[in-house]
Design goal:
mainly alpha
Amino acid sequence: RSDVYSLGVMLYSCLAGRIPFEHDDTGELCERHVSQDVPNVRNQSSLVPVELADVIKVATKRDPAQRYQCVQDMRNALGHSIKSPAPPLSGEIAHK
């Protein structure tokens, strides 16, 4: 289940363009991963579909028992979230 958490953090980082927690002290950074919930990725990018943000939320639960039981379960959830329609692009992004 630690792999599920790591994949959730990687997915968060790819979609948000930043890691969920930052700190210069490695010990403090580790403590944040243990004691704080990973922020909602939609706080960084509202273009991330809610269903995909929900997959990240489950994958990064602090309590391992509340995460996906295996990577296959996470993969299945990702498959369902990707099948939902993508949000429309804003005019600013669509013209780039």
